[in-house]
Specification:
Layout: H1 26-46, H2 56-69, E1 73-74, E2 86-90, E3 93-95, E4 109-114, E5 116-118, E6 121-122, E7 125-130, H3 136-154, H4 162-175, E8 179-180, E9 186-188, E10 195-199, E11 216-219, E12 222-224, E13 230-232, E14 239-241, E15 247-249, E16 252-256, E17 261-263
Helix pairs in contact: 1-2, 3-4
The structure holds 2-amino-4-trifluoromethylsulfanyl-butyric acid and cobalt (II) ion (2 copies).
Amino acid sequence: MTEYISVAIDDDRAESRNGVIKLHGAEAFAGMRRAGQLAASILDALAPHVVPGVTTQELDEIVYRLTLEGGGVPATLGYRGYTKSCCISINHVVCHGIPSERALKGGDIVNIDVTPIVDGWHGDTSRMYLVGDVPLKARKLVDVTYECLMLGIAQAKPGNRLGDIANAIQQHAEARRYSVVRDFCGHGVGRLFHDSPEVVHAGRPGTGPELKPGMIFTVEPMINTGRPDVKVLDDGWTAVTRDRSLSAQFEHSIGITDSGCEVFTKSPAGLDKPPNA
Ligand code: MF3
Ligand code: CO
Ligand code: CO
């Protein structure tokens, strides 16, 4: 077993998080590109390992090793008492599933969320993986959730507002009778893991902060087949759907540019969504 080291700072208590939305420069974009590409390459490398029988702890150990080999450290290690290198959320788990001895089985849909810190910059991204043969209903949810992320990102350009991103996501999900989770949001990201603004995934167009070149944040919609309500289990982390309906999530870290946005966490191997979703 690897001996884990704790490096992350509790950014929610850091003085630099003061509600002001930072406008970052070229150096930040270069740093986020490096961290984001390491994050995406870790998710790429996990794909062949996400198979029936593997435990989520084994996957976490791969994330730990690849993060260090890539010159990073996992932001989640030691973050508010969290002791793993990633979050792994299966089926009705909405987010923040803790890697454990639980083995994956055919038919599971699984989100893996990684955040390597490289030279102080946080690359935060997650994807869904399909384990073995997955029923059509679950594959459709995964597909639509990916579409929600990308439709949201398509609204990420100067002059638009955060509500435009939120509305694009909500419209697409609800048109298919899915629901959007309200209890967790995207967030500003950079030298801090969770910075301002809060990036909601449901809302009205033309509302919320205006997007400006230099803003860097995540978009990470969680979409349920049933009701939007979640509860956190006694472990203090694992968030599940209250009605135990299926939940899916994808996350990218992006930066607003003069003409639109740059997606820092795009897959180098083109695996942003599962090939058979
Ligand atoms: N990576 C998650 C996010 O997208 C945060 C995980 S914090 C943890 O913001 F402590 F649960 F790992
Ligand atoms: Co995030
Ligand atoms: Co994340």
